[in-house]
Amino acid sequence: MSPVLRNSSTSVAKRPDLEAGQYKEPQGASFWVLLAVSMPRMAVNMAWAAQWAALGPYLSTMLPNYAVQLTSVIGPVVGIIFGPVIGVLSDRSTSRFGRRRPILFVMGVLSIICWILMGYTNELGEALGDVGSGQAGEKTDRTWTAILTLVFYLWMDITVTCSQTPTMLMVADFAGDRQTLGAALGLGWATMGAIIPAVYIQIWGAAYLTLHWFMGLLCVVMFVSVTVAVIFGRETPLEKTDNVTSTCHGV
């Protein structure tokens, strides 16, 4: 073995802070608090997976293929527009409930309302005059159902994007020096959110065929995860200052 390899294998990396007796424990929330505040990542990722698993095939029964593909552009465009705006607004929020929790709570509630209505698009469309189921040889006109689905699709993109931003910022706020741990826990929840729709489809078939139940499951996951995050993620409110500039200037 060469001297270089021998020295590198036996040497110990020097830590000036340890040698000087100045080592400090990493600052940040505990494992369990980080696990709680990162939980909405599961609901957010499940919502994005639901667009491909349920809404895409559902729209394909009412719209031509090119129109269905165009709807996939909505998500990135909404993210580019609303993501930075929500980030700045939450950074400057002086609410007594904290900077992230109010936005996360409101957007979570709006997402749940959207999904409840989305589960009944077929019934709402029929009430407005739609006929048929799209099967071959059957007279079909599902214009209203398609319009309502697109409206709720856009609504969902906005609220889920606006939920995603404060969720990620909240994890970063609480993690402190434990950013790697916070990111890992968030990724774990996000992975679980992607797995749930796949398991649902494997057991019960195409999600749009049981849209009520699928959207109901999505509502339950969002409600539970947001509730856990806002209860255990106790933020310190931002103090009001006199030199606050406009939000547009911050963007």
UniProtKB/TrEMBL annotation:
Location(s), subcellular: Membrane
GO cellular component terms, semicolon-separated: membrane
Membrane topology: Multi-pass membrane protein
Annotated Gene3D superfamilies: MFS general substrate transporter like domains
Protein name as it appears in the record: Major facilitator superfamily (MFS) profile domain-containing protein
SUPFAM superfamilies per UniProt: MFS general substrate transporter
TM ranges: 31-54, 66-90, 102-122, 142-160, 181-205, 211-232
Pfam families associated with the record: MFS_2
InterPro entries registered for this protein in UniProt: MFS_trans_sf
Lineage: Eukaryota, Sar, Stramenopiles, Oomycota, Peronosporomycetes
Organism from which the protein derives: Phytophthora fragariae
Keywords noted in UniProt: Membrane, Transmembrane, Transmembrane helix, Transport
A GO term, aspect molecular function: sucrose:proton symporter activity
